[in-house]
Structure prediction request, 231 residues.
Amino acid sequence: MLKLQNLYAEYPDKSKAIQGVDLAIGNGERVAIIGENGAGKTSLLHCIVGILEPSMGTVEVDGIPLGPKTANEIRRRVGLVFQNPDDQLFMPHIYDDIAFGCRNFGMGDGEARARVEEVLRQLGIGHLRDRSSLKLSGGEKRLAAIATVLAVGPSVLMFDEPTAFLDPKGKRSLAETLKALGHTLLLATHDMEFAISTCGRVVILKDGRIAADGPPSLLRDEELLERCGLS
Prediction:
């Protein structure tokens, strides 16, 4: 369970990022966070893992409240895949990128090696193990970035604009990959068709607040979309 209560957050310039968000996401749910630029989608994801510190309210993951002493454990349980895969791929080889997170969370060499091999197999990217991210396509980079997060064993996966840098074929491949994963998913995206195809629930943000929360059919409501700056 991921639970946010009365969550507020500010940007460094003191402008409002998140304003009074209450949100509960159950195990195995797939939720799309939709909103126009500046609506607070990325800020919400960053609050959940403590990159952006909430100014008020609480974040709980599996009953563990986010705080200075629990931030590392929260980040192990909640994996965030950034919008730009290059932010997560910085080692000489993809194998090293995936192993980095494992070692950073205190796994020994044997366990880290086993985790890396498992996610390479799970995502079907074993052929990328000895390649540099500089030599990969957008879709290959996306899968490699997902692998770096999966390897540490999170229960929740969060994606910031997962279809960025992907062509239509890459989007279809990513959708199939996400459907095959058993994790709780939280996707912040502008891509409404992708949200409809991958998620069973949609949360629409407007000015850092939840404007609507319900089934994907919400994204067919032209009046709602116009009110939220999405059409």
